[in-house]
Design a protein that fits this description.
The complex is a heterodimer of chains A (about 450) and B (about 250).
Chain A lengths: L1 H17 L8 H9 L3 H7 L3 E6 L4 H14 L4 E3 L7 H9 L7 E6 L4 H8 L3 E4 L7 H4 L2 H13 L6 E5 L3 H7 L5 E6 L25 E8 L2 E6 L11 E9 L3 E7 L4 E6 L4 H16 L4 H9 L7 E7 L2 E6 L4 H11 L6 E6 L25 E7 L3 H9 L8 E3 L3 H11 L5 E6 L1 H13 L11
Parallel strand pairs in A: 1-3, 1-4, 2-3, 4-5, 5-6, 6-9, 13-17, 14-15, 14-17, 15-16
Antiparallel strand pairs in A: 7-8, 9-10, 10-11, 12-13
Chain B lengths: L2 E7 L10 H12 L4 E7 L12 E4 L4 H23 L3 E5 L1 H6 L2 E3 L5 E3 L6 E20 L2 E17 L7 E5 L9 E2 L1 E3 L2 E4 L10 H16 L11 H13 L5
Helix pairs in contact in B: 1-4
The chains are: A alpha/beta (about 450), B alpha/beta (about 250).
The complex binds zinc ion.
Chain lengths: ~450, ~250
């Protein structure tokens, strides 16, 4: 029975790749889980070290950073590198594990995490942030926090929890577990003192009173303290200091543990990537990867699929920055502002299941910050007209935007607008990014995402 | 220049469905017609003066925030009633429609009080009603299609003094049972539709503005027509994404 199940599942992966549908990153696992629902637990037991990383934003990049450093360190590991972060994707990765791969490095969808943690039984669990995201799919943020709380409460003490101290709700969850280490950013110039519109987690989880912020880095992340009961940001064991954001080219900062400090340079832009690198540093440190390997692993990382990824086509460069929720989109816009000059901007909005069917969230993105830096604005995707209205009602003239719902038209338009050697920044939702990649792939501009490792 | 005075209730707590889009639409459509406007945020602990606003907006929030807000609203209840009686325009969306009614009974049987400016009552259902919503709406004897998105656990039933904002063509509406959506009583409108509701439904936006200007000046204005081609295209897309043909 078990052999038949495994062969069937593997054959399905081969077939779905051969047919060019989704690359077989989830289908084999889906079949396997159908045939043997407890297989994840069995397969995970064969691993010595299991690292699970979850967050609303940054989990793909962070898992990729940890994998890179593990690779430098010659650790043999299995990972779900293509962002297939539901049970089916993780089962597929485990199904393809080679016998010598003793480590597992997994990024896990935040809604699937409470169900997966008891099965995978991670040795290291990294919780990075929770922002509002796809309310029709994930429900209210409060609901996710509540489910994560139950999950943390039932963790065995051996699980090492690594938590972002700058996220008040997560810091509260950390206070419920013995074996916990926090990470966080020190005071930095790249922060403000005011909370942005539509920030979440602004009340103390202990007593419900409003929180005060000394600094706000992203959304509701920062240095915080309850006005009433004094519950405050825990002192992190891993800190990020002296942050230097070098435009779209990259970032550098000093990462420190209780005993060492380390200069880290990454070719990825923006404060959010500094958080990702710090979380990766804390994770690598915890699994005993040496400082030099961490440094090398992080400095040589390339962008994850659709995260600051650059693709050239017909002499034009597209910089793709996935933008799927308000906190992530705002962070992308802030990162764009690090560069001088005007920007050819293309934004793609889809409303399929993986994007969230409710497009209300675009009204919580602060597009206003970038309006006077726009050289050209092209709007595309299934819900292009909703986005057009978002800009129209922010005062952007309707005559200055190009609304082209289809991706083919979008590429045609960009080609005619941007000079050879020029660059456009593309902010797509998840399935819009897949559509864009597939269109670019057709014209030979990029490789398929399942070929990535 | 006439200034239309808009009050935004609890913008920090009740804002999870792009609510500021509704405010932006009201403001811009006034501006494009030569009216100025002011937006006054009112939060927990602030006083609500019933005589200084023409329109009052309240959006949707998370359960915990809605609870905090519900108790604060009780302190403003008398002022809100007096404003509604005086013809102030209300648009209360999502959590807002529940707070405008008699109250909300949650899944644990706890009762969260409402202010009672709409004759309706809400209790939690077993599942959330989520998805695209398309209505045939009627106000002042005119009808129009409205599109939006709903995401609520509450089942709302209207009493005799409230009339539905519209009848459901696609989606669940107030309770998933009687094909009604929203509620209207004098110039108080409650609805589960977000999206947000106003950008894709300029007819409703202009109806609210007509009422608000009348409240301010005492005269029914003749609003100049605007180029609503983007709004209409977005509405058509929403209708087809909801699985309906026009
Ligand atoms: Zn407190």
């Amino acid at each position: 029975m078990s052999h038949i199940a495994l062969s069937l599942a593997k054959a399905a992966g081969w077939m779905s790749r051969a047919l060019g549908r989704g690359g077989g990153t989830t289908l084999p696992g889906m079949i396997l889980l159908r045939l043997r629902p407890h297989i994840l637990r069995e397969m995970a037991q064969e691993l010595e070290e299991i690292i699970v990383i979850s967050a609303t934003n940054g989990k793909t990049t962070t898992a990729r950073m940890v994998s890179h450093a593990a690779h430098e360190s010659e650790i043999s590991f299995v990972a779900n590198t293509s962002g297939a972060n539901l049970p089916s994707g993780i089962a597929t990765a485990l199904l393809r594990r080679k016998p010598d791969e003793k480590y597992g490095i997994f990024e896990v969808d935040e809604a699937a995490l409470p169900e997966l943690v008891p099965q995978l039984r991670p040795t290291v669990l990294v919780l990075m942030n929770l922002f509002r995201d796809q309310l029709d799919r994930y429900g209210e943020l409060e609901t996710t926090i509540h489910k994560w709380k139950k999950m943390v409460e039932s963790l065995p003490e051996t699980t090492k929890l690594i938590i972002n101290a700058d996220d008040p709700a997560l810091a509260y969850l950390g206070s419920l577990h013995q074996n916990v280490q926090f990470f966080g950013l020190e005071l930095t110039d790249h922060a403000s003192e005011t909370i942005s519109h539509a920030a979440d987690s602004l009340h103390c989880l202990k007593c419900n009173s409003p929180l005060n912020f000394q600094q706000v880095t992203i959304g509701h992340l920062g240095h915080w303290e309850c006005q009433n009961c004094g519950f405050s940001r825990p002192n992190p064991s891993f800190t990020g200091d002296k942050i230097n954001l070098m435009g779209l080219d990259g970032s550098e900062f000093i990462a420190a543990s209780k005993t060492d400090s380390l200069g880290i340079q990454i070719p990825l832009a923006g404060t959010h990537n500094v958080y990702n690198a710090l979380a990766a540093y804390a994770t690598c440190y915890t699994i005993d990867i040496s400082a030099t390997k961490i440094q090398k692993g992080l400095s040589t990382i390339s962008a994850a699929f659709g995260r600051n990824e650059i693709i050239s086509f017909d002499g034009v460069e597209l910089m793709i920055m996935l933008a799927k929720n308000p906190a992530g989109a705002n962070q992308n816009l802030k990162t764009l502002l690090l560069e001088e000059g005007t920007i050819h901007l293309a934004i793609l909005l889809n409303d399929r299941t993986a994007d969230g069917k409710d497009v209300s969230w675009i009204w919580d993105v602060d597009y206003e910050m970038i309006l006077d830096r726009i050289a050209s604005l092209t709007i595309s995707g299934d819900r292009a007209y909703d986005l057009a209205l978002r800009f129209y009602y922010s005062g952007f003239p309707a005559t200055s935007m190009h609304v082209v719902p289809s991706i083919q038209e979008l590429l045609e338009h960009l080609k005619s607008t941007i000079k050879i050697g020029g660059r456009a920044v593309v902010l797509p939702t998840y399935t819009a990014m897949l559509d864009l990649r597939s269109e670019l792939n057709k014209i030979g501009a990029t490789h398929s995402f399942w070929e990535e490792k | 220049m006439t200034e239309i005075r808009i009050c935004h209730l609890y913008p920090k707590e009740m804002n999870i469905y792009g609510d500021r889009g509704n405010i932006a639409v009201l403001q811009k459509r006034l501006e494009w017609r030569g009216y100025s406007s002011s937006i006054t945020p009112i939060s927990t602990g602030d006083d609500f003066n019933p005589t200084i606003f023409d329109l009052c907006y309240l959006g949707g929030g998370q359960d915990r925030d809605q609870m905090l807000v519900a108790y604060d609203l009780q302190k403003k209840s008398a002022a809100i009633h007096s404003a509604a009686k005086d013809g102030m325009v209300f648009l209360w969306v999502c959590g807002g429609i529940q707070l405008a009614g008699a109250g909300y009974t949650d899944s644990d049987g706890r009762r969260i009080p409402g202010v009672g400016i709409l004759d309706l009552d809400t209790s939690a259902g077993k599942s959330r009603l989520i998805g695209d919503l398309v209505l045939n709406a009627e106000l002042d004897g005119e009808t129009s299609t409205l599109v939006g998105y709903e995401n609520h656990a509450g089942r709302t039933f209207l009493g005799p003094d409230a009339t539905p904002l519209g009848s459901v063509l696609k989606g669940h509406g107030n309770n998933g049972a009687d094909q009604t959506e929203g509620a209207v009583q004098e110039r108080v409108i409650g609805t589960y539709m977000h999206g947000p509701i106003l950008p894709k439904n300029p007819w409703l936006a202009d109806k609210l503005l007509t009422w608000a200007i009348e409240h301010n000046t005492g005269e029914i204005p003749a609003l100049s027509s605007l180029d609503d081609s983007l709004e209409n295209l977005a509405q058509q897309v929403a209708i087809s994404r909801a699985g309906m043909k026009r």
